[in-house]
Amino acid sequence: MKFTLQAENNIAKIENALEDMKKIQLLQQEVGEGVSLLSQGGLDVSTEKVTIESIMNRTEQYLKGIQLDFGADGNGTNKDNQTILDIQVVVHDKNPYIFGQHSEASAVTSKVTSVVVSGDIRPDVKFKNTGSIQYQDYIPKMDPNDPEKIIYITFTMKNEGDAAVAYIRPHGMDPGVQSTHSLYTLYLGDVTYPRSSSHDFSKTLTINDWTDYGFKTFIRQGLCHKGSCYIGLKPIESKYKTNDFAF
Questions:
Q1: Strand 227-235's sheet: what is its strand order?
Q2: Is residue 153 within 8 Å of residue 138, measured between CB atoms?
Q3: Which of 16, 63, 108, 132 has the fewest CB within 10 Å, making it most exposed?
């Protein structure tokens, strides 16, 4: 309890120090001179003075994969695109807001970012996906006595409280050529192999779920605990055969 109280008190001190730091940086900046960036020990503090006109068509990442999108009309401000904005971005590589028992996560695996834009301007804040896609090839191996013909896959959830995105890509499938389609019902099991009659989550994979990486399924936080998780793929009845696939 004492540790939690100290953490909460220190967060307030960190936030106050960051506010003072950003004010000092902005006082020394002029419009259009670019980004002022301070980096130290896993903390990045960025400030900039800009006009709406100069930034609303900006396409490059702003800081560490962050991009601000003001829309085609400058977020409704096209009548005064010379309005000056103060933009403040803070990125913590390690989450300073996690207090142990107040979080279900066993580890912090993402950065914590704060973006503040002065005035009533509310841009969309976009983050670059830094994850990598790692496929494993599977050849369907089904129990010949199983009437459901379910294909099983196991994967590891690295941390308690994590969510996951699974991509399933049948070999040789072309979404534009129906004769190559292989569709499945996906079942998820947390502690054992799922069945159509016993599972923790299910989803029918349709062509609408197809991406460049294959069929996309989001496994939300809490569905699988840390450790082994189990996916079952039940082929949907079709006149087309089931392909080998990558996961």
A1: 151-157, 227-235, 184-189, 201-205
A2: yes
A3: 132
Range of the domain at 58: 2-127
Burial 81-109 (b: 16+ CB within 10 A, else e): eebebbbbbbbbeeeeeeeeeeeeeeebe
**Could you give the number of structural domains in the chain?**
2
Residue 211 sits in the same domain as residue 95: no
φ, ψ of residue 176 to 5 degrees: the values are: -90, -5
Q: How many CB atoms lie within 10 A of CB 230?
A: 19
**Cβ contact 217:137 at 8 Å:** no
- Model confidence over 56-81: pLDDT tens digits? 666 565 556 777 776 655 454 455 67
Across the chain, which has 247 residues, the per-10-residue mean pLDDT values are 58 85 90 87 88 70 67 53 84 70 56 82 73 69 79 86 84 76 87 91 89 88 89 73 54
